[in-house]
Specification:
The complex is a heterodimer. Chain A is built from 14 helices and 17 strands. Chain A is of the alpha/beta class. Chain A folds into 2 domains: about 10-265, Aconitase, domain 3; about 275-420, Aconitase, domain 3 (2-Layer Sandwich). Chain A has a 5-stranded parallel sheet with strand order 4-3-2-5-6. Chain A is globular, with a radius of gyration of 20 Å. Chain B is an alpha/beta fold. Chain B has 2 domains: about 1-135, Aconitase, domain 4; about 135-175, no CATH class. Chain B is built from 8 helices and 7 strands, in the order βαααβαβαββββααα. In chain B, β2 (about 50-55), α4 (about 65-75) and β3 form a beta-alpha-beta unit. The longest helix of chain B is centred in the middle third of the chain and has 9 residues, at about 85-95. The radius of gyration of chain B is 16 Å and the shape is globular. The chains are: A alpha/beta, B alpha/beta. Chains A and B meet through β1, α2, α3, α5 and β7 of A and α5 and α7 of B.
C-alpha cells in the first residue's frame, strides 16, 4: 500500500479498495461495499440484470431496494413497479425499504454507509454518502445492476477540487447557502468528473446534517463524489445511530495533490437562493429582483434538506407566526427517523398549527412525481437540490432553491425573505 | 446521413425525460414519445431515424435516469454530439450503445445534414462542408460500445473485465 503522503480522500479510498496505489486518471475495477436502487431506476436495473444473466445479488446484505419516489404510489403503473421490486428483492435476498421509510440516500446514510466504503447508487444524489468519509457516486441502472450482481464496478479515479472553508457560518446562514454560493462560482459543470472534497475549520465544526447537504449537491456541479473526512462528528453520528462500531477515521494526506483549491471565508457568507432554471443562478436573498415574486408554495424536504434538523430549523422560524395566506407549505420528512423526531420534539404540532401539510417520508414533489406539483405560473421556494424546467412536475412553474431558514422566513411573508430578519 | 437537432447548453435529464412521465418508465415506447419534450416539443414527432441530437456544454446534466439516453436511442438518433457531457449521462449512453461524441458543436447549425464515422472518429457536416474529428473512448468504454452496451457485454463475457484485463494487463493499459 502507498506510503506516500499525497493522496486525496478519493484516492485513499480507491487505493484501499483496489489494493495498490492509484492516482487521478487511473481506470480501475473496484469491489463495491454498498449498492442500491430506488423505485424509478430499480425496475430497469432488475430487467437489465435478468438480461445480463445475473439476476442475483453478490452480497444481499449490502444491496438495497428503496421505494421512495412514489411513496405511496400515486398511480397504478408505479404500484406495479413496486410489486416487481418487492418480488425481485424477496427472490434475491436484497434488503427492501418499503414506502414510508424515506429517501434512499437519507436512509442509507442513517443505516448502512460507513467511512471508507465504496458506495454506488442508481440515483445521482448517492454522492451524499461522501459526508460519511465514503466514496459514494451515482450511476445508471445498468451500472448499478452490475455492481449488485457482480459486486464490482469500474471507475476513473477522479481529480479533486478542494473546498477550504474557514471560520464559522454566521447566524441565519446554512450549509445550503454555502453550496449554492459555490455552485454560482464554479457553475453546474465546474466539478465535472471530479471529486469535491470539503475541509477547513467551518467544515470541522459543522454538524453532520449540514455536511450532508454539501456532499448531496456535489452532483449539481457535475461532481463524481463529495467526500468529507471522517472525524469525531462522524463517530458521534454513528454512535447516535447505534453504529459506533462502523466508525473509522479517514482524512486526506497533508500533501494531497489537488487540481485546484477554493478558499471560502465562512463568516462572510450570506443567505442566497438559486433562481429558476438552474441551480447555479445564484443571487443574494436580499436581491431586489426577488421582492415582487409571490411565492405560492414553500416546500421543505428532499435528501438535500429534509432531515429533522432542517424541519426543526424551519419550525423555529415560523413558531408563533402566521403563514402568509397565499403561500401554502408542504413538508416532506426525508426519512421515518426525521418524521418521528419531528413528532417527539413537538415541532409537528407547531408545523400543523402554522398551516403546513405533511407528506409521507420520501422524495414526493422534488422530482415531480406527486405530493405538491405546482400549478402553471406558480412560484415555489424549495429546500431541494434542483430547479430545472419541469423538475417539480410542471414545466410552467418556477422553482427557487434556498435553505430551510429562508423557507421559514418566506412562508411568513409570501415572498423570498432574508432569514436573518427573523432568526 | 441525418439532420442536426440543435440544443443549447446544460440540457438536463428532466428536459430529456421529464419527471411528470415517471409512471411511464416501465413503458419505454410511451415514454419515448415525450423525448426532449420540454426542450423542443416538436422533437419526438419530427425526429427521423439517423438524425443527430446536437447539444452544447454539459449535455445530460442532473439525474441518473438511464431512460434519458434510452429514449433518445429509441427515437432512432444515430449519435448525440456535445461540447461536453455530464458523467452519468455519458456512461449511460455508452452502456446502451448510444454514441456520445465530444466535439466542438458551435459550428453545426440546426438542420445541417450530418454523418459520422465512429471507427475513424470524425463527424461530417455535409451542409456546411466541414469535418470535426473526435477522440476515441477510453478502452473500457470502447469495449462496452463494441458489444452494443453494458448489458450485452456482460451477457457475452460474464464479467466486467475489459479484453486487456482478461489478457492479464491492467484495464487502463494502452
Amino acid at each position: 500500500m502507498s506510503e506516500s503522503l499525497d493522496q486525496t480522500l478519493a484516492e485513499k479510498i480507491l487505493t484501499a479498495k483496489v489494493g495498490r496505489p492509484v492516482k487521478a486518471g487511473d481506470i480501475v475495477v473496484v469491489p463495491v461495499d454498498l449498492a442500491y436502487v430506488q423505485d424509478g431506476t430499480g425496475p430497469l436495473t432488475f430487467r437489465k440484470m435478468e438480461e445480463m444473466g445475473i439476476p442475483r445479488a453478490a452480497t444481499p446484505s449490502r444491496s438495497i431496494v428503496f421505494l421512495d419516489h412514489a411513496s405511496p404510489p400515486p398511480r397504478r403503473e408505479l404500484a406495479a413497479d413496486h410489486v416487481y421490486l418487492r418480488e425481485f428483492a424477496a427472490r434475491t435476498g436484497m434488503i427492501l425499504h418499503d414506502i414510508g421509510d424515506g429517501v434512499c440516500h437519507q436512509v442509507a446514510f442513517e443505516k448502512y454507509v460507513r467511512p471508507w466504503d465504496l458506495v454506488v447508487g442508481a440515483d445521482s444524489h448517492t454522492v451524499m454518502g461522501g459526508a460519511m468519509g465514503a466514496f459514494a457516486t451515482g450511476m445508471g441502472s445498468t451500472d448499478v445492476g452490475v455492481a449488485i450482481g457482480l459486486g464490482k464496478t469500474w471507475l476513473r479515479v477522479p481529480e479533486t477540487l478542494r473546498f477550504e472553508v474557514t471560520g464559522e457560518l454566521p447566524r441565519g446562514v446554512m450549509s445550503k447557502d454555502l453550496i449554492l454560493r459555490v455552485l454560482g462560482d464554479i457553475r453546474s459543470d465546474g466539478a465535472a468528473y471530479q471529486s469535491m472534497e470539503w475541509g477547513g475549520g467551518a467544515i470541522d465544526r459543522m454538524p453532520m446534517h449540514e455536511r450532508m447537504t454539501l456532499s448531496n449537491m456535489a452532483v449539481e456541479a457535475g461532481g463524481k463524489c463529495g467526500p468529507i473526512a471522517s472525524d469525531g462528528e462522524t463517530r458521534t453520528y454513528l454512535a447516535v445511530h447505534g453504529r459506533e462500531a462502523d466508525w473509522r477515521p479517514i482524512a486526506p494526506d497533508s500533501g494531497a495533490r489537488y487540481a485546484k483549491v477554493f478558499d471560502y471565508d465562512g463568516p462572510s457568507l450570506e443567505p442566497v437562493v438559486a433562481t429558476p432554471g438552474s441551480e447555479d443562478n445564484i443571487v443574494s436573498v436580499t436581491d431586489p429582483s426577488l421582492r415582487d415574486v409571490p411565492i405560492h408554495q414553500v416546500y421543505v424536504g428532499a435528501c438535500t434538506n429534509g432531515r429533522f434538523e432542517d424541519i426543526a430549523a424551519f419550525s423555529k422560524v415560523v413558531r408563533g407566526e402566521a403563514r402568509h395566506p397565499n403561500t401554502r407549505v408542504i413538508i416532506t420528512p426525508a426519512s421515518k427517523e426525521a418524521y418521528v423526531l419531528t413528532l417527539k420534539s413537538g415541532h409537528l404540532q407547531t408545523l400543523l398549527e402554522f398551516g403546513a401539510m405533511i407528506n409521507s417520508p420520501g422524495c414526493a414533489a422534488c422530482p415531480g412525481v406527486h405530493g405538491g406539483i405546482p400549478g402553471d405560473g406558480e412560484n415555489v421556494l424549495s429546500t431541494q437540490n434542483r430547479n430545472y424546467k419541469g423538475r417539480m412536475g410542471n414545466p410552467n412553474a418556477s422553482v427557487y432553491l434556498g435553505s430551510p431558514l429562508t423557507a421559514g422566513a418566506t412562508a411568513i411573508y409570501g415572498v423570498i425573505t432574508d432569514p436573518r430578519t427573523v432568526v | 446521413m441525418g439532420r442536426a437537432w440543435k440544443f443549447g447548453d446544460n440540457i438536463s435529464t428532466d428536459l430529456i425525460s421529464a419527471g411528470r412521465f415517471y409512471h411511464l418508465r416501465s413503458n419505454l415506447p410511451e415514454l419515448s414519445k415525450h423525448t426532449l419534450e420540454d426542450a423542443r416539443p416538436e422533437f419526438a414527432a419530427g425526429v427521423r431515424p439517423g438524425d443527430f441530437v446536437v447539444g452544447g456544454r454539459n449535455f445530460g446534466k442532473g439525474s441518473s435516469r438511464e431512460h434519458a439516453p434510452i429514449v433518445i436511442k429509441m427515437c432512432g438518433v444515430r449519435a448525440v454530439l456535445a461540447k461536453s457531457f455530464a458523467r452519468i449521462f455519458f456512461r449511460n449512453a455508452i452502456n446502451n450503445g448510444l454514441a456520445a461524441i465530444v466535439c466542438d458543436t458551435d459550428r453545426i447549425a440546426d438542420g445541417d445534414e450530418l454523418d459520422v464515422d465512429l471507427a475513424v472518429g470524425v463527424v461530417f457536416d455535409r451542409t456546411a462542408g466541414f469535418q470535426l474529428p473526435f477522440a476515441p473512448l477510453p478502452v473500457v468504454m470502447e469495449a462496452i460500445m463494441a458489444e452494443g452496451g453494458l448489458a450485452e457485454y456482460i451477457a457475452k463475457h460474464g464479467d466486467l473485465a475489459t479484453p486487456h484485463e482478461r489478457a492479464g494487463a491492467r484495464p487502463d493499459a494502452p
